[in-house]
Structure formats: C-alpha cells, structure tokens
Design a protein that fits this description.
Mean pLDDT: 93
Helix content: 40-55%
Radius of gyration: 15 Å
Distance between the termini: 53 Å
Number of domains: 1
Shape: globular
Strand content: 5-15%
Largest sheet: 3 strands, antiparallel
Strand order of the largest sheet: 1-3-4
Structural class: alpha+beta
Oligomer: single chain
Low-confidence stretches: 117-124
Length: 124
C-alpha cells in the first residue's frame, strides 16, 4: 500500500482542535464513537468525498479518489475530533510503520491533551 499523510486532513483536524471541536474521551471508546458505515455513507451523499477525506489522516494513493477505501486513519465523527480516534490512528500508524501519519496523530494528541513543550531555563 502507498499510504501517506493526508496533509489537508491534518490541517483540518488541527483547526477543529484549535476551535474546541474536541471530544476528550478515553482510549478504548473509538469502537463506540466512530461513525457507522451508514453515517459515513450519509455524510458522503450530503457532502462528497472531498469533505469525507478531511476526516482522515491517511490516504492510499493506489485507490480511486471516489472510494472510501482511499481514506485511512479516521479521527472524528464529522462534527468533532475524538481523542480516542486520534489515539487509535497514532497506534495503528506506528504499528504499520506509517511514521508521517503517526507523527501527525501524536501532534494532535498533544494538542488535545494540552501538552506544551517546556521552555528551558536559562542558567544564572
């Protein structure tokens, strides 16, 4: 597979997090919180594949643009970013060595959890 980071999806997710469109749920909640096939199909019918793509951190460029199979590593429910979806994407991307997607998910994870990089103290 030729899976790589969906930069548009990553930027869209960062914007959602910045605007507070986040569900701070637990790691194992994704199986219950991810959109059903029916909700995915309804979203695509209403908004098209370009909007559907924004809700995924990965793209398989070997698959056709107008198929769900092209879009990998979902992170939200078409309204909000879900922490559990980001954690799932981060874990699976690392497992399959999609390091660019793993780094993007880790960045989102840090933004959601409010992780800030410490400012080094200057020596006196």
């Amino acid at each position: 597979m030729a899976e790589s980071l969906n930069q548009n999806g990553f930027e869209f997710a960062k914007g959602l997090v910045h605007n507070g469109k986040v569900v701070r749920d637990e790691r194992d909640d994704w199986s219950e919180h991810q959109p059903s096939t029916e909700k995915e199909n309804e979203f695509i019918h209403r908004h098209g594949f370009a909007e559907y793509a924004k809700w995924h951190l990965g793209i398989d460029d070997e698959k056709s643009e107008d198929t769900k199979a092209r879009y990998k590593f979902p992170y939200g429910d078409f309204r909000n970013v879900h922490r559990c979806g980001v954690l799932s994407a981060e874990s699976r991307a690392g497992q399959y060595k999609h390091f660019d997607i793993e780094r993007a998910a880790a960045t989102l994870h840090g933004l959601i959890d409010g992780v800030k990089h410490p400012i080094p103290r200057q020596r006196e």
